[in-house]
Amino acid sequence: MYAITIPQPGGPEALVWAEVPDPVVGEGEVLVDVVSSAVNRADVLQRQGFYNPPPGASPFPGLECAGRISAVGPGVSGWSVGDEVCALLAGGGYAEKVAVPAGQLLPVPEGVDLATAAALPEVTATVWSNVFMVAHLRPGETLLVHGGSSGIGTMAIQLAKAVGARVAVTAGGPEKLARCAELGADVLIDYREQDFVQELRRATDGAGADVILDIIGAKYLDRNVKALAVNGRLAIIGLQGGVKGELNLNALLRKRAAITATSLRGRPLAEKAAIVAAVREHVWPLIAGGVVRPIVDRSLPLPDAAEAHRVLESSAHIGKVLLRNPAA
After folding, report:
1. Pairing mode of beta strands 258-261, 228-236
2. Backbone dihedral region of 302: left (phi > 0), alpha (psi from -120 to 50 degrees) or beta?
3. Is there a contact between 131 and 235 (Cβ–Cβ < 8 Å)?
């Protein structure tokens, strides 16, 4: 098969379309012929040499895909050759074939075409696990989403609105904020021109956010704590603004607030399977009912993954950037 390889870490040009051995299906796995994959910030970090795959995972980038099952390994039940699926991966999505643990498979939701389904596994699993399973966002509460126009952000807005929460977002510029508003965001904050702490306090009569979903990390840590409501929960899922920040514990104590930090890629298989099962139970009906939908900015040929990375790094996109397998 062919896959995007990374012979040496570097810029987008480090991504090389090359012939590689086909993956071998192990116990509890299926082989998926990839129709499309999607680009995530973690793929950029892997390309740069900062985020290696966990032991035993595919060396190729790609944390999600959609395609058709072409082989079923020992110990797998409930899935058959020919099934159209999308999948959460630890790696290997930028390839023509990938071996996937059966617990990380999802059926393609009703109303979504197979190629577009690649936009769903990573964002739905990330948002549902962090905002709902960990931070326990409830109806009537306020969620602040940093990067509201990103793939994660566009899904977080929709899911939070679907359960009856109020949503505030930060994004860069009027066009991105307008798209967030179309998806249901109630409070629109241009981080380039406005202070999100002040704007959030103004919009909530001084209360702040009950839950904050943060992709920035260290750069926003102090301000995120200031923006939290009493009993607020800060869920950190990205480090675009650095890894080390100073935390005012007294401010956290006075608010009886909590901070969590999680990633999906390195979790044990059982934890990933539990998250995927929760997504199938709670999110898939919302997609099938048209309440929630994948937001796709563009789709590029898989061999052109370098260009897709340039788009992601420029932050010119809204929603997900997909990679389609030209041979599928």
Report:
1. parallel
2. alpha
3. yes
Closest CA to 89 of 256, 224, 264: 264
Q: Are strands 209-214 and 142-146 parallel, antiparallel or unpaired?
A: parallel
By DSSP bridging, strand 296-301 and strand 320-324 are parallel
Helix (H) or strand (E) holding 232: strand 228-236
- Residue that the structure tokens 């895909």 belong to: 65
| Residues 157/187, Cβ–Cβ less than 8 Å | no
Question: Per-residue pLDDT for the chain (328 aa), expressed as one digit of tens each?
Answer: 999 999 999 999 999 999 999 999 999 999 999 999 999 999 999 999 999 999 999 999 999 999 999 999 999 999 999 999 999 999 999 999 999 999 999 999 999 999 999 999 999 999 999 999 999 999 999 999 999 999 999 999 999 999 999 999 999 999 999 999 999 999 999 999 999 999 999 999 999 999 999 999 989 999 999 999 999 999 999 988 888 989 999 999 999 999 999 999 989 999 999 999 999 999 999 999 999 999 999 999 999 999 999 999 999 899 999 999 999 9
Q: Nearest CA to 153 among 198, 178, 183?
A: 183
DSSP string for residues in 105-162: EEEPPTT--TTGGGGSHHHHHHHIIIIIIIS---TT-EEEEESTTBHHHHHHHHHHHH
